[in-house]
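hey
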């Protein structure tokens, strides 16, 4: 019975610790390889994605 209580306590603490929001105030940006377009504006990048994926 004691092992079960320890398991439940550890499970709750792990779930609580991993659900905390990040402290960063900047938005997260994900860039995939081959998709770096530094010389394009946001509108140009959006249009490029629409053409690339056929929308």
């Amino acid at each position: 019975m004691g092992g079960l209580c320890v398991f439940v306590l550890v499970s709750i603490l792990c779930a609580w610790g991993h659900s905390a929001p990040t402290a960063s105030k900047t938005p997260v940006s994900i860039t995939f390889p081959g998709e770096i377009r530094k010389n394009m504006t946001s509108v140009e990048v959006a249009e490029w994605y629409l053409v690339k994926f056929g929308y």
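The CA atoms of residues 47 and 55 lie 9 Å apart. The helical segments are 2-18, 42-52.
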